[in-house]
Amino acid sequence: MKAKRIMSYDQMLVKGCYVNKKKIGIEDQLKEMPKKKQKVNEEEESQGSETVTCTSHGLISVIGRRRVMEDAVTASVGEIEGYDFYAVYDGHGGAVVATTCRDRLHRLLAKEVHERTRRGKELDWEKVMTACFAKMDEEVSGEGSDQQREAKDVVIRTMGSTAVVVLVGKQELVVANCGDSRAVLCRGGTAVALSRDHKPDRPDEMERVEAAGGRIVNWDGSRVLGVLATSRSIGDQYLKPYVISKPEVSVIERTKSDTFIVLASDGLWDVVSNEIACEVVKRYLDGQIKMRFSEGCSGGDRAAEAAAMLAELAMARGSTDNISVIVVELRR
């Protein structure tokens, strides 16, 4: 599988969308193009999903209308035996935690998987992911050594990041989520949420926070102690034990009707639904939506172009946040 290029914000902005040689926006295209029922090619249906983990991936991360960039993304192919690693991190209070997660979490996971496999232990993904997220939380909190503890200051203590991780294996998808970034699977033409957002007003999250002695305050939306708009994150030491780094983990068996996955920060999901996001990507991959300068991109850029279209759509719908999107094609 080939990794795809990352589009810059400027590259994304110069791309327009055309239907019948008339420049129109993505919203217009969604209205103008007739919906088609998905047809599964019999030859593709007969091909076992066990042949490859995925066919391609593309990603984009743009500052949007924010003054600073706090998002980060990772696509690591082949580092974890049998799996490709994809993750989106949405930082807050600064970019330090998100960028540290970008550089370190997949390596911590690769090491954890290798050590457990070497010892002949079965991979309990909930235990593996929980252990790695805890180690990542310790690293960004400066709890690993005396030197790290001395380096920890008030600024770092108030920084944090969400993390949504998808491992793509030949037979299964492993999803770990901490925060309100999200992963969505297109299965048989239908959007299937792979993760659940950790929002402070989610009943079970509110109960957990209050049981720990915290409060959910409605201040420009529900927030933990009136401060943080997500109830789980990596970092945010000043809000513990109310905000925790433990991820929710799920393992989903792959099917032949799985076509692609979209991972994104809430800069996309706040303004674009799961269903619309999948519809945009599906129509682009099916050739129903075209980009103005698509002739300048090779066919291998399909996933990157699809990710860029989602970022453009989020901007058009008024997203005020950083926007990061990864599109992973699971079959051709």
From TrEMBL:
Coiled-coil intervals, chain numbering: none
SUPFAM superfamilies: PP2C-like
Signal sequence, renumbered to the chain: none
Annotated keywords: Hydrolase, Magnesium, Manganese, Metal-binding, Protein phosphatase
Gene3D superfamilies, per database record: PPM-type phosphatase domain
InterPro entries listed in its UniProt record: PP2C (IPR015655), PP2C_BS (IPR000222), PPM-type-like_dom_sf (IPR036457), PPM-type_phosphatase-like_dom (IPR001932)
Family to which the UniProt record says this protein belongs: Belongs to the PP2C family.
Protein name as catalogued: protein-serine/threonine phosphatase
